[in-house]
From TrEMBL:
Entries under InterPro entries matching the protein: MFS, MFS_dom, MFS_trans_sf
CDD domains found in the cross-reference section: MFS_MefA_like (cd06173)
Residue span(s) of domain Major facilitator superfamily (MFS) profile: 1-190
Annotated protein name in UniProt: Major facilitator superfamily MFS_1
GO cellular component term of the entry, any: plasma membrane
Keyword set, alphabetical order: Cell membrane, Membrane, Transmembrane, Transmembrane helix
UniProt superkingdom: Bacteria
UniProt keyword annotation of ATP-binding present: no
Main location: membrane
Membrane topology: Multi-pass membrane protein
Location relative to the cell: Cell membrane
The species this protein was found in: Salinispora tropica (strain ATCC BAA-916 / DSM 44818 / JCM 13857 / NBRC 105044 / CNB-440)
PROSITE patterns: MFS
Residues spanning the membrane: 12-35, 47-66, 73-93, 99-123, 144-161, 167-187, 231-249, 261-281, 288-307, 313-334, 381-398
Length: 426
């Protein structure tokens, strides 16, 4: 990781991303708390998270837009627009203004998809292929650290000073990201700009061409063997991995016989595991490739779920630590695979489509887990999660050779020396 951090261009991008990720992390929980305080309803507070996730359905359209513009200016513009879109929150006074929070949450979700898709293309331009895993590992480590402290900091800031100061701090984060990334100098190939004729032959219609372009990312995902294997395997695991969001409360309540607040302790332990996973995930990718690292991450989550089927404090801490390590393995492996295997003109659509196909099943499984935990014993459900994710891991591991580790770049100016055989023949 130190190699990629020595690059001045990556350090500039890194500073901008830390600023924007900090703004994202402090807003995520605080918006839900704001709704809860205004309405007293847990359901309406939870709907805030749904409002953020809902724009995932527009991922193909967002990816198509991203692929039509240069990455750096679009990243700068997206951060500036996100900062501007937060301004309606200054007008929120009582529950009659609830719609403003939901509206901002929807735009915030669109911003998240856009920035994620743009980032994949921007990293592709800035970082050599053999350093992509290190770059993604550095960013995932920071994201896991912010996931550990950001939401709590945002909630504390809202409780202490109110929504106005919270919104102001988040806006500063997005503006700082725009300024820092705006200083980058990135040479990008020309794109098909809006307004230019889109017809490729006399019988082509604009509508048909747009429809083809919108679906190009999903078609590429379906046709590229390594990406198809990764999404099928990880998608299978995601169908049950979201159960754990509800099961952990039952585990703490019925298994450990502790107050619900103890979940916060386990989340902290999981965050520590996430930091460790972010640091070691590039090394894992160099050993087994991206699909192999994805398989290891899903296997670690499955092992953690099986361990949680037996209530024990120390085993539980070890299990959530493993679950924390698993997340960077899966995220770094998947993002690096997209960046290595996708043609540059398609990378925005492929990245956005992947987000939708991964987060869609996860959102469904979170809702399904909330229903199932009221019907079945949480231990049985943890066993189901463990077995299904281990099955998905086995499927992924079987395809690890589809994405062999990237070879290190040859040393500049190195001339290989040919050795002679003992007989003197060349």
């Amino acid at each position: 990781m130190r190699t990629v951090l020595r690059r001045p261009d990556f350090r500039l991008l890194f500073g901008g991303l830390v600023a924007s990720m900090t703004a994202e992390s402090i807003l995520l929980l605080a918006l839900a708390i704001w709704v809860k305080e205004l309405t007293g309803s847990s359901g309406l507070a939870g709907a805030t998270i749904f409002a953020i996730i809902a724009p995932m359905t527009l991922a193909p359209l967002v990816g198509w837009i991203v692929d039509r513009y240069p990455r750096r200016p679009l990243f700068v513009a997206a951060n500036l627009v996100t900062a501007a879109l937060l301004t309606p929150l200054f007008a929120v006074g009582d529950r009659t203004d609830l719609w403003l929070i939901y509206l901002v949450a929807i735009f915030y979700g669109l911003s998240y998809i856009t920035l994620s898709a743009v980032l994949s293309g921007l990293l592709r331009h800035l970082v050599p292929t053999e350093l992509l895993a290190d770059a993604n590992g550095v960013l995932q480590t920071v994201r896991q650290g912010l996931r550990l402290i950001g939401p709590l900091a945002g909630a504390a800031l809202y409780t202490a000073a109110g929504g106005g100061l919270l919104v102001g701090v988040a806006m500063v984060g997005f503006l700082a990201a725009a300024v820092l990334v705006g200083l980058l100098r990135v040479a990008e190939s020309p794109r098909s700009w809006p307004g230019r004729s889109c017809c490729c032959h006399p019988g082509c219609t604009c509508t048909a061409r747009w429809s083809t372009e919108l679906g190009a990312g999903l078609r590429y995902l379906a046709g590229e063997p390594a990406l198809r294997r990764a999404l099928l395997g990880y998608g299978l695991g995601s169908l049950v991995m979201g159960f754990s969001e509800s099961l952990i409360f039952a585990y703490v309540d019925h298994g450990l016989r502790r107050d619900a607040a103890f979940v916060g302790v386990l989340v902290t332990v999981q965050g520590i595991g996430g930091l460790a996973g972010g640091l070691v995930s590039p090394g894992m990718i160099r050993r087994v490739g991206e699909v192999g690292a994805l398989a290891v991450g899903v296997a670690l989550f499955g092992s953690a779920a099986l361990t949680l089927s037996h209530p024990n404090l120390w085993l539980g801490c070890a299990a959530v630590l493993l679950a924390g390590v698993s997340l960077p393995f899966t995220m770094v492996g998947l993002h690096t695979l997209i960046q290595r295997r996708t043609p540059e003109p398609l990378i925005g659509r492929v990245a956005a489509g992947t987000d939708a196909m991964v987060n869609g099943p996860r959102a469904v499984s979170i809702g399904g887990g909330a229903l199932l935990v009221g019907v079945f014993d949480y231990r049985q459900l943890f066993v189901v999660v463990g077995l299904v994710t281990l099955l998905a891991s086995g499927y992924l591991w079987g395809g690890r050779r589809l994405s062999p580790p990237a070879q290190p770049a040859p040393l500049t100016g190195h001339v290989p020396v040919r050795r002679r055989s003992p007989t003197g023949a060349p």
